[in-house]
Amino acid sequence: LVVERKDAKGNRDILGMGRLTKVPGTADATFGLAVKDQWQHQGIGLKLMQKLLQVAKDEKMEKIAARMLPE
């Protein structure tokens, strides 16, 4: 999933992205999520996470996990 915006000239800027990856042979998945620093604390990460959780639910995933990395 990608969140982007267009400026007045039509140039695109990626603000955030999320990824859900199934673990082969299981009902588990891993996810990754990133939001540009200047766009944090505006709900973008929350919306991406909600969408990823909905996809996991639709795909009948039992568990999703991520490793939190320091900045």
Structure description:
- This protein is an alpha+beta fold and 71 residues long.
- It has one helix at 44-58, and strands at 2-6, 12-22, 28-35, 63-65.
- The chain is elongated and about 45 Å long.
Estimated structural class = alpha+beta
Count of strand segments = 4
Low-confidence stretches: none
Number of helices: 1
Question: How helical, in percent, are the residues?
Answer: 10-25%
Overall mean pLDDT score? Answer: 94
Which word captures the global form?
elongated
Please sum up the structure shown.
The protein has 71 residues and is of the alpha+beta class. It contains one helix and four strands; from the N terminus they run βββαβ.
Present the secondary structure layout.
Elements: E1 2-6, E2 12-22, E3 28-35, H1 44-58, E4 63-65
Parallel strand pairs: 3-4
Antiparallel strand pairs: 1-2, 2-3
Feature tags:
single chain; 71 residues; alpha+beta; 1 helix; 4 strands
